[in-house]
Amino acid sequence: MSLYSTPILYLNMGGEMLYVLRQRLKAQKIDIDKTVQVLDEVTAALLNPKVLSPMFEESPMIGMPHLRTILESVALSSIMKLDANSMDKLFDLMTMMVKYQLTAASGPREIVLIMLNHIDGMRDMVSDVNAQKCVTLVQEMVVDFYSCLTFDEIWRARQSCLRGLESYNVRVSILLRRGLQNEDASFNITPQRYDERYMEHKGTLATLKIKDVSPETCCGGSFDTFGDRKTLLGKNIYLPTYGIMENAKRDSQQFLRDCGVKAELGMLAVQLGTEETSYERPFTLNLLSNVDDENVNNANNETDSEGKSVNQKNAENGEPKLNEDYKAKLDNVYADFFEDEHEGLTRSMDLLDLLDELE
């Protein structure tokens, strides 16, 4: 079993939890102050160095029951109440979305980009300055940790994650509506703009470290803080703009190219005297509407028994070590962020109400 799987599961599932909470808070028209408070508190708890640092240690993958316990405690750090039924629904959504993303991933570099997309989503949701710094530090940890691994090591980490998620089979309405899942809970893997085709190039890339290979060799995708990840996997699928901006940008670029060609041909026709009418260069104004469609998600809560990981240690050499400086920095940021953490908190929001439309 891979020694590098735990951060993949923890950060991706934590990111999906925040996506669901954000969507339900908005759908339920929760007061903006409470919404900000919930997202800040859950994000800070998710990235708490006492919880996060052990995740980046080289060890066999965390068991799913243990991971659920940790994520449940993270959700309880906010002002929301939480019962078993609520956590069941939330955990099913997190699990199936991450299972789909890892199944659809086209290569090891995309595995890292999926994590960075979730971290970008966290950064967009938190408002506190110290929490923002904490998110940036976590992104640096991910890049430093996985850039030192080979393509094959990251791919095997993905395989370990999928084995841990194998027993979870829940139908999620948003995946069904988008044609990404079948009624039997299996996935439809549709072609995407980002495609590493790793299995085709495995022979030459497997033993190379991620940091030693040009991003363009693997279909691009930036590891920078505000870089273009290229892939949609790991972005907030509950947003009405999910996938639209990428397609609109691509369509717009093609439209402009077509207009340019027509303009040049038109001017050439005028110059050659084959066109008697005057020619005007086309002018395009694109006004995008702000239509806010709520995504209401529906999960069939028919989950198999939880899969247990097999603790097999992988005695590999040259494995990356966690930089202790990150832990110290995270401790400082977390201390600043939670200076008055327990003052005046009233747990007045019931997560079951927030998830009441997730069947």
Automatic annotation (TrEMBL):
Organism (species): Ooceraea biroi
Name under which the protein is recorded: Protein OSCP1
Superkingdom, taxonomy of origin: Eukaryota
Region Disordered, annotated ranges: 294-324
Pfam families: Oscp1
Coiled coil, from the record: none
This protein's GO CC annotations: cytoplasm; plasma membrane
